[in-house]
Amino acid sequence: MARVKRGVTAHKRHKRLLNDAEGRRGTRSKLIKPAREAQLHAMAYAYAGRKQRKRQMRALWIVRLNAAAREQGLTYGKLINGLKTAGVKLDRKILADICVRDAATFGRIAEVAKAG
Question: What span, in angstroms and rounded, lies between the C-alpha atoms of 97 and 7?
């Protein structure tokens, strides 16, 4: 069987790893093993961060809605419950955007929630 020299493959893999490690401090951007370990941690943090961002955005929408609802004489819970009973199908993201950009429209939505 013919001999296979793997230097080219390993060099390519290491080069890609070090290119991805650019900007890290110390040996994490220079040496293979620390760079690989740093990259593994970075990828794990990035994966977790993509999940956390969704939670944080929903929490932000709820805080904004609660503040806007209290200006209209409602609480967040009463606003959401009133909209559900009135059959309004707006999610928290859209409602929060409306309360930030157009207070008059949000006031009309809050009136519907009070009546609903």
Answer: 55
Residues 6+ apart with CB under 8 A from 29: 18, 21, 22, 23, 35
What single letter denotes the amino acid at residue 72? Answer: Q
Place of tokens 């008059």: 104
pTM over 0.85: no
CATH code given to domain 8-115: 1.10.1900.20
pLDDT at 38 over 90: yes
- The Cα 23–Cα 116 span in angstroms is 55
**Per-residue model confidence (pLDDT) at position 1:** 85
CB 45 within 8 A of CB 28: no
| Cβ 98 vs Cβ 106: under 8 Å | yes
Q: pLDDT at position 45, please?
A: 98
